[in-house]
Amino acid sequence: MSISASQVKELREKTGAGMMDCKKALQENNGDMEAAVDWLRAKGIAKADKKSGRTAAEGLIGVAVDGNRAVAVEINSETDFVARNEAFQDLVRGVANVALGTDGTVDAIAASTFPQTGKSVADSITDAVATIGENMNLRRAAMLSVDNGVVATYIHNSVADGLGKLGVLVALESTGDAAALGAIGKQVAMHVAATNPLAVTSADVDAEVADRERAIFSEQARESGKPENIIEKMVEGRMRKFFEEVALMSQSFVINPDQTVEAALKEAEASVGAPIKVSGFARIQLGEGVEKEEADFAAEVAAAANA
Q1: Backbone angles phi, psi at 149, to 5 degrees
Q2: β-strands 166-173, 149-156: how paired?
Q3: Do residue 214 and residue 278 come from a single domain?
């Protein structure tokens, strides 16, 4: 019997099962949607659907490097316990390696073939949900590359090689010594992990962010009752300080607070043997921006008692 793509799509939306599993279920049941759902449930494949609505804010960041290209991916789970599961760690590590062969976008990674299963990354994660027993999702990814130089990486709160709670990539362009460049790059990546800058330079700070800060500073300054020309100078002074604090190159270097990151890189050029330029960075912190559900334990116990 011929099964249409729309049928497969509908069954996948109903159950959360993988595309090929949905197609097989429909073929085995002559296109009967409800029977196909029951077939998937009997096989233990559709149980992933029951978990798809639960908040996944834990998990791991995976970082992988290939030559002058590096990628970081965030795969979330519901509990930190799963992050210590070897199967989950292998999944995250494998997805990061697959991501190296893509353009680094979540859609491209999700559609790529996962070598360990022969299925897409998206379907492999869905299968892992059914196997491991928690909702999971590929939430974010970042990729950086350089023509000449290195992409340095750093994992904070590492739980295994290339896996942790916070991943940083820093792209350094230079024709100098790769080992020396990698060493200073690692330090800059650690700095980014600690300070979470908004941009490489003040000129790179998002205009909307800068405008919002300027408006806040202006309102605060006007409350002082000072003349407008004085207010303008006050606002400009505060904006300069703001840019110094949020732009990577002007921040005080955490390794040596007596110098800025820019000065530290300039100093490192002597050992590298060539100019160094930071062309970009990426910082992915696990669960950042995810609104976690706060469980009311007492309410859960009461509900269970009355069930």
Answers
A1: 130, -150
A2: antiparallel
A3: no
d(CA 163, CA 192): 17
pTM score:
0.75
Q: Which ranges of the chain does DSSP label H, i.e. alpha helix?
A: 5-15, 19-28, 33-42, 80-83, 86-99, 106-111, 121-132, 178-195, 207-222, 228-246, 261-272, 297-306
C-alpha angle 252-245-289 in degrees, rounded to nearest 5: 115
Per the CB < 8 A criterion, the answer to whether 276 and 246 are in contact is: no
Tens-level pLDDT at each residue, the chain (307 residues): 788 888 888 888 777 777 788 888 999 999 998 888 878 877 766 554 444 444 457 899 999 999 999 999 999 988 888 888 899 999 999 999 999 999 999 999 999 999 999 999 999 999 998 888 888 999 999 999 999 999 999 999 899 999 999 999 999 999 999 999 999 999 999 999 999 999 999 999 999 989 988 888 888 888 878 888 888 889 899 999 999 999 999 999 999 999 999 999 999 999 999 999 999 999 999 988 765 554 444 554 455 444 4
CA separation for the pair 184, 120 (Å, rounded): 37
Q: Give, as one character, the DSSP assignment of residue 12.
A: H
Considering its fold, how many domains does the chain have in total?
3
The CATH number covering residue 192 comes to 3.30.479.20
**Is residue 226 a contact partner of residue 204, using CB atoms and an 8 Å limit?**
no
Rounded Cα gap, residues 1 and 86, in angstroms: 40
CATH code for the domain of 21: 1.10.8.10
Q: What is the spatial distance between Cα 155 and Cα 167, in angstroms, rounded to a whole number?
A: 5
Cβ count within 10 A of residue 268: 20
In a domain, 67, yes or no: yes
State the residue range of the domain holding 228. 206-246
